Amino acid sequence: MRKWGLTPLSIFPTFVIVAGISGIAQFDGSPVTHDALRAVAEGAPHRGPDGIFYQRFKDCGFAHLALNADPANKKTAQLLRHEQDGRVWLITADARIDNRTELRSSLGIDDKPIANDDCELILLAFLKWDIACVSRLIGDFAFAIWDADNQTLFCARDPLGVKPLHYTKLSRGLCVASAAQQILQHPEISSRLNEGTVGEYLAGAGENLQETFFVGIQSLAAGHTLVARRHGIQVARYWHPEDLPLIQYADPRLYAEHFRELLITAVTERIRGFERAAITVSGGLDSSSIASVAQHYDTDTKIQGFTQIYDQLVQCDERDYSRHLTHELGLDIEPVPTERFWLLADEAAFCPQLESPFQSFASCMRYLYERCQDLGITVLLTGHGGDSLLTGSGLSYLDRLLRGDLGVFRDMRVHAALRHRSMLELVSRYLLRPLIPNTVKAILQTKSPWQDPAFPAWIEPQFANRIGLSHRLRTQSRLPGINSRGRHERVTEMLHLGSVARAIYYLDRTASEFGLECRHPFLDRRLVEYVLSLPNEQLFHAGKTKVVLRNALRGILPEAIRNRQDKTYSTAFVDFSLRKISADRISMLFEDPICAALGFINRFELRRAWEDFRTGSRPMKGAMFWFPITLETWLRRYHLELHISDHNQ
């Protein structure tokens, strides 16, 4: 065997998309049974529409759920076994590596005739640099490597958490998988409900970085590695954006030029080699920027845009903006008639998986996926992450003031006029409140010992107290070494993506059913690290946000969009769907909810709030009801499969 080579189960071309992985490792040397491995792999069959491939070696077994972008390749598997000097390694990966050329050079295999296989490159990198290899990988990935000689399992997840990875301890080993519901199929695992995650979900909190809806099943957090041996598991964070040095260019124009280069790379690398790619465009700054860059700089790939249109709820419609992409750039944009897909109206589409109760605009998304499938499109670009990365922080006002910069007040007056805010409101939000210690804020905010204003009144107080919900919602780690409040807020936002993480995970687990993978250029590690190293003024200045993006895309993005300062939300669509279209169904759902029987909510408080919203007697947002609605629907579908704690019976 070649010293640098591997023995692949099958060669994986550049075009392959992976939908999921799973594996079982036994640290006592006992064999992994095919039945157990197969049960875990098949726990999320939608992730492997192009087949499930297996590889076992005594005390370890891996499975790979394939989703192929190239129609000519239907029997590939991103799964490898490597033997060298009597030692054996196995690897399975859900990965797309973007710095292949750099990696091949560093590995000394520039002229070697290996397949351009991301899985193979990851394993070669591991064999050379051990666990430190993750810092050299650029792309979206989740992988597991078994070192048979040392009986060690090494797993890693990309810094922004685009690819999911879950794990749980077994009596004699460890089980890993893309989806938590895969792990639930292992014969040792109980589907015991995690009340802490339930409480956070009902409060509308973002996706928990490490916990799932099931006790004992953990999510490997973004930017983390896991090393498991017989005597324990070590989880460590390897991505530390708080340590990035601040960039200071003498020529301010260089900020935008550098950003533009990185954005072009992030977009084009995600569609290179594909004849067609899709993108969801709203007319907003983020998705329109991705579409414009793709249209300008990848002439080999035909870009198909999709935009949601509204004829009745005109306040949600953005056709006047998205039309600029067609008229000025020639982008083909197909309308998606959103008002045909009211929330909860299609029971067949509104069908949560065991993985999580969260649902998005299910019917509308399925329509978009089906259109991509009809057009032979297998890659869908999104603008997810743009707001979190590029908005910047108003706390820079306080940072500047503490440095003695009195020009803060001039900029705040401009900000107030631009955003139609009062100067008093801005001073309170950005200068005074940040100086109040969190412990004092908690005391001032609490109205009574029984109800915390941080979450809705319908959450049962005893349940909230039992799981420590207030603490869960307010706990935020302080990153050492960052003195700037504005930069600390920006870095923390990218380390804890919250609702963005929930959205990309939802897309990841639903799009694969249609042979589609969603890719997110704004979550490119190189781009993210550059932006987090910028002075905050390059992002936020006098009320204007995303400054560096606007400057970078001058002449590329239509001016009407580039200079846009407002943003359209789907609030009216959500409210109308719940209040007018599905109100009767929701009222029946809340009449005798399982959530109340389990002690999670107070059904009287929930019904009172619902009736206030339904009748319009109090100004409320319908989105707050989405979480009890989807949790109740999920529990009714799966309650027989779930093990509920005794104190809820």
Tell me what you see in this structure.
By secondary structure, the protein is α+β, with helices and mostly antiparallel strands. It has four domains: 7-239, Aminohydrolase, N-terminal nucleophile (Ntn) domain (Glutamine Phosphoribosylpyrophosphate, subunit 1, domain 1); 245-389 and 497-562, HUPs (Rossmann fold, 3-Layer(aba) Sandwich); 393-484, no CATH class; 571-648, no CATH class. Helix content is 37%, strand content 17%. The strands form four sheets. The chain has a seven-stranded antiparallel beta sheet with strand order 1-5-6-7-8-12-13, with helices on one face. It has a six-stranded antiparallel beta sheet with strand order 3-4-2-10-9-11. The chain starts with 6 loop residues before the first strand and ends in an 11-residue tail after the last helix.
CATH architecture of the largest domain: 4-Layer Sandwich
Give me the Rg, rounded.
25 Å
Distance between the termini: 61 Å
Major sheet strand order: 1-5-6-7-8-12-13
- Counting DSSP E segments of at least 2 residues, the number of strands comes to 20
**Within the CATH hierarchy, at the fold level, what is the topology of the largest domain?**
Glutamine Phosphoribosylpyrophosphate, subunit 1, domain 1
CATH homologous superfamily assignment of the largest domain? Aminohydrolase, N-terminal nucleophile (Ntn) domain
Poorly predicted spans: 1-18, 70-76, 447-451
Oligomeric state of this protein: single chain
Mean pLDDT: 87
CATH class of the largest domain: Alpha Beta
Number of separate domains = 4
* Helical run tally: 26
Relative strand content:
15-25%
